[in-house]
Amino acid sequence: MRFRAAVLAGVILVAPGGAEARPLRVLSLDQCADQYALALAPDAELALSPRADDPDAWMREAAAGRRRVRPTLEAAIAFRPDVVVRYWGGEPRLLARLEADGVRVVAIDDATDFNGIRADIRSVSNGLGVADRGEAMIARMDAALPSRPGGAEAARPRALYLTAGGFTAGKGTLIDAILSAAGFANAAERPSFAPVSIERMVLMPPARFVLGFFEQARADWRGAGRHPVLRRLARGRVAANLPATALTCPAWFAADAAAMLKAGA
Q1: SS3 call for 140
Q2: Which pLDDT value is given to residue 219?
Q3: Which of 28, 188, 213, 261 sits at 20 to 30 Å (Cα–Cα) from 13?
Q4: Which of the residues in the chain have pLDDT under 50?
Q5: SS3 156
């Protein structure tokens, strides 16, 4: 069986009485893709990933009642999508078969700043044939971004991002862009993601902590970020405790995370 090619302006099925339009059929292969599909194509026939309504999904309420499928070749063949959206989901055999059968596969890149998120929104919205919705989403994201104060980065208050698992995020990460948008300088010295050193935190504690994923009681409940020493160091120094829903995906709600941080500060 061959998949149909994506028809972005709408899919037409021929019935005995004439042509009848049906909604675009969109397959989402992972939780991040679920958020984009739900926000940009709520009127499409969606097949979401099993994690679409997990507690750390931003659009979990919108996922209620939607079809869920495992990201397998068999499920894709049965659903016969017009467009597939993915961030990290889908194994190579599935992706190769989809592309060989003419299905449009739209990939969300791992954005490390808000320009990257804008590019992702445009890529997905164009792939779904709803470019106007993408531009409206970008406008809402830009409106949610806090106004950055002037002055040099060295003059901004320094803050260290800390997850329950004991990791931080340095330059070249979306977390760094969120900190900067909220008016903070990143206290993490190394680029990318790295484990924190409790000993170093004791000797040189940061002025502020920005916590992430701490509200998930079952996630890393024995992680280094929950160490009693770090809990004592963070007391009275927490600028914001950002929810996992705003941090799990390079998407428009990163602006909401920056606004939460700005408000908490």
Answers
A1: helix
A2: 60
A3: 28
A4: 1-19
A5: coil
To the nearest 10 degrees (0 to 180), the angle between helices 31-40 and 114-127 is 70
What residue spans of the chain are helical by DSSP H? Answer: 31-40, 73-79, 92-100, 114-127, 131-144, 174-181, 198-203, 228-234, 254-264
Q: How far is Cα of residue 47 from the mean position of the Cα atoms in its chain?
A: 18
SS3 153: helix
Confidence (pLDDT) at 190? 87
Look at the chain and count its residues: 265
Q: For residue 199, give Cα distances in angstroms to 49, 181, 211, 229, 230.
A: 40, 29, 18, 9, 10
- Nearest alpha carbon to residue 86 among 125, 141, 37: 37
What would the DSSP string read from start to end of 1-55?
--PPPP-TT-EEEEETTEEEEE--EEEE-SHHHHHHHHHH-TTSEEEE-TTTTST
Query: Beta-carbon neighbour count of residue 40 at 10 Å?
Result: 23
| Dist CA 160 CA 137 (whole Å) | 29
Q: According to the model, what pLDDT value does residue 226 have?
A: 81
3-state DSSP assignment of residue 72: coil
Q: What does the pLDDT read at residue 107?
A: 96
Q: What is the pLDDT of residue 14?
A: 37
The secondary structure of residue 164, as a DSSP letter, is: T
pLDDT digits (tens, 9 = 90+) for 202-230: 888 888 999 999 887 666 666 778 888 88
- Dig out the tokens for 132 from the structure: 């106007």
Q: How far apart are CA 106 and CA 28, in angstroms?
A: 10
Residues 94, 76 contacting (CB under 8 angstroms): yes
